[in-house]
């Protein structure tokens, strides 16, 4: 009997721990240690998107640290947009070279993209361009590669926040 009681307690505590790890708020989806909100029904320019995310629990426009994260986001975006080849189908990422042309950084911590994982489309970003494309976007029509886009364009975007931050707020 004691054995079963211990097993039951272990099970309950394990479930609680598991649920705690998945602590994303309603409307957000979780993967690994992050919660994501897909703004697939509104379009904002890059700066407005950063403000939107900040006002939603202090989150940030998504940063992609590795291939697994990209594949997850790609999968979700495809689910949201059945007609994935539409030119309308792209999302802001939280990277910019607004401060120093050609030096792309994640705006959350100013870490350089060149020091980590990237998935730029060949020939992108167009460093030193005269077109002032200073904000990174996840471009659906070309296999979710990364491109430098005009920051003032209106687009969908993804907000991201660590699960631990959402638990503190939630
Ligand atoms: Ca991330
Ligand atoms: Ca640029």
What is the structural class?
alpha+beta
Helix content: 25-40%
Characterize the largest beta sheet: strand count, sense, and whether it forms a barrel.
8 strands, mixed
Beta-strand level of the residues, as a percent range? 25-35%
Outline type: globular
The third-level CATH topology is: Mannose-Binding Protein A, Chain A
Architecture per CATH nomenclature, i.e. the level-2 architecture? Roll
Helix-strand pattern:
HEEHEHEEEEEH
- What is the mean predicted local confidence, pLDDT? 86
**Unreliable stretches covering 5 or more consecutive residues:** 12-21
Return Rg in Å.
19 Å
Our count of helices gives 4
CATH uppermost class? Alpha Beta
Number of domains: 1
**Which ligands accompany this protein?**
calcium ion
Number of strands: 8
Describe this structure in words.
The protein is of the alpha+beta class. It has one domain (2-169): Mannose-Binding Protein A, Chain A (Roll). The protein contains four helices and eight strands; from the N terminus they run H-E-E-H-E-H-E-E-E-E-E-H. Strands 1, 2, 3, 4, 5, 6, 7 and 8 form an eight-stranded mixed β-sheet that branches. It is globular, with a radius of gyration of 19 Å. It starts with a helix and ends with a helix. Residues 12-21 have low confidence and may be disordered. Bound molecules: calcium ion (2 copies).
